[in-house]
Amino acid sequence: MSDIPSKRHSRIEDAQGLAYGSFMAATGVLLLTHMGFVTGQTAGLAILISYATGWSFAPIFFVVNLPFYWLGYRRLGLGFMLKSFIAVAAMSVLVTILPPALQFGHVHPAVGALLVGFLTGSALLALFRHGASLGGIGIVALYLQDATGFRAGWTQLIFDACIFACAFMLRDWQTVAWSFLGALVLNLVIAINHRRDRYVV
């Protein structure tokens, strides 16, 4: 057994983690849409709908996530559902109110892709470590894995592949390629740093 005692986060620590994650995620989305990039998961779906319709990202993202709260409650409990709802709502509000105070000029696509990946990766890490998330595709993937044995990672990969395939209808291939770099960086941040065997809470 480990010599490090297992401790749960306090409510204040959870609040700080949700605030940090929501703010960094909103900043990442604002930079991402400034660059015209796309991404995966439910955020990517909301961004594609926003690009295609001209509607604002924030309400689309909020509505797209609504069906997943029940699944989150069934799969991961009431605490996860409530924290995820708070995080999604907070990010949606921040994406709406931040632009007057946070504007971008020229950003090279390579730098933009790296920043988007690191910002959103750190945001998701904070939310994961405080029992929340910003999207429901992972929950659906876990449900399918439990019901059919089909690996959750493959479900998420297929969904993201569909998002990026659709992106070619709305964006040029260079923009999609830079977007893929940002998504790759994001997933590497999560894969390398989100390790339950190294983070005890």
From TrEMBL:
Residues crossing the lipid bilayer are 17-37, 43-64, 76-98, 110-128, 176-193
> Can the keyword Disulfide bond be found in this entry's annotation?
no
Annotated compartments: Cell membrane
Q: How does it sit in the membrane?
A: Multi-pass membrane protein
Which GO cellular component does the record give, naming just one?
plasma membrane
Keywords of this entry: Cell membrane, Membrane, Transmembrane, Transmembrane helix
- What protein does this entry describe? YitT family protein
